[in-house]
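Predict the 3D structure for this chain.
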Amino acid sequence: MNLQVIGGLLIPLLGTSLGAGLVYVMKDELNMKVQKGLSGFAAGVMVAASVWSLLIPAMDMAGDTMGKMKIIPAVGGFMVGIIFLLLLDTLIPHQHIDSDSPEGVKNESLRKTTMMVLAVVIHNIPEGMAVGVSFAGAIFGEDLFLSQAIVLAIGIAIQNFPEGAIISMPLRSVGVSKRKSFTLGILSGAVEPVAALITILLSSIMIPILPYLLSFAAGAMFYVVVEELIPEATGEGGDHTNVGTLGFSLGFLIMMVLDVLLG
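Done. Predicted structure below.
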């Protein structure tokens, strides 16, 4: 494996790191309107990524061998992803929120942020595998040239920029230090080159199950969006619910455009 391939595998991580770095330019305390806008934006990004980066590619991959039954990996993986996050959410203790206890509110916000971090990490694993598939094709001389694989990696890096931000910025807003928020944002994307490398090394095993993994990640992200982000964007503070809706629309449109143009 040459330096070009190694460098290509690290390109998506660069996008995540740059997005996570936005934590250094944000204020320590976010007002309600900004929090709702960010929650809505994160939800829009995750929904668009689930559809165009995960579900549609999963069905396209399965279609080569399964024909019209390509819907099976999408439906099956999606439902398993939902159930997995549902079970995980049940196991993670929920804090009782006392309106007179800022600490209770902070703990619950941290739990929600943890769920979102986990969903993005789960999403990044099959996304990294998709990069690995492209580089495996370039290495073994099948279908893809190295330049095409690098273009795909750059496209995913651009997509990862808002994802890095939606990890680090909410962490900072619940009291995590800027350095730790930035580090966790980077680590959420670090799974991508690892997953890509494993896919290259074990391509005969990993590639056939990739449609299921992509759909599993989509289900996990949808769960977090519906359970955590949308209520946070449109819940308490009725005066600012339109900000969350506008944030969702903006995040969805940006991610959709990036996925279609660079996917």
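The two ends are 24 Å apart (CA to CA).
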